[in-house]
Amino acid sequence: MLNHRTLNRSTTISFSQSIFYFTISILLNSFGNVLTIVTSQKMHPAILGSAYWTATQSGFNKAIFNGSAVMLGWTFFGFGVLTALLNVILQGYFDWKKFFGNIAFMVPFSMLISFFASEFSGLFPEVHHLLGGIGYTALNFLGVIFIAIAISIYQRVNLVLHPADDLMQILRFKYFKGNAVVAMWASYIPPTIIGIISIVILPDFTNYGLGTIFAFIFQGGITGWADNHIIPGLKHQRIN
């Protein structure tokens, strides 16, 4: 299991490589997130749900903004800023590069979420039958896997991080001795609070289901697995 002692303390990849890997990961993450959202919304009955953070923020967007695809990106951005502030508290000091890096991450990520949500909404038909349901379930789980792999890549690049994944990384290496699974579960406390607030406002559970459970149980483990099997030559870069 990866821990503080096995982390690289210096940067071993070039800046251009960092940008390349980061671009791949942010596209993969936003694509995976929207894949879970759209398959969940288009399958009837609504039993799939989205990845955990995605589900709670989508639920909040639905409760407050009636599920607007445009406002979905802004919802992700707003909670990203709040999570970045939480990271400062847990880290114990203010690192302006990391903080504004978290915010910088949210700008293209939120735009990509809105873009993919708008595009995919019209591409995926509604399904009401078993065969289509099996296909959408597989795509939903694949979206979760994409998210987990993306997290692994840009955590290792460590250029800028999504605030939620920076939260997971802070918990992983500062509090849980490199354990990705336990850190992922602990990082789910904030979205759980968001989800409870959303359900109180609008008792709607369509964003929660099999995909949410799959993400809750396996996403951290897949991230840890991807560290060693997806682009295995890419090691964790220096943590400042």
Automatic annotation (TrEMBL):
The chain crosses the membrane at residues 20-43, 63-87, 99-118, 130-154, 175-202, 208-226. InterPro entries: YczE/YyaS-like. It comes from the Bacteria. Keywords: Membrane, Transmembrane, Transmembrane helix. Pfam families: DUF6198. This is Fructose permease.
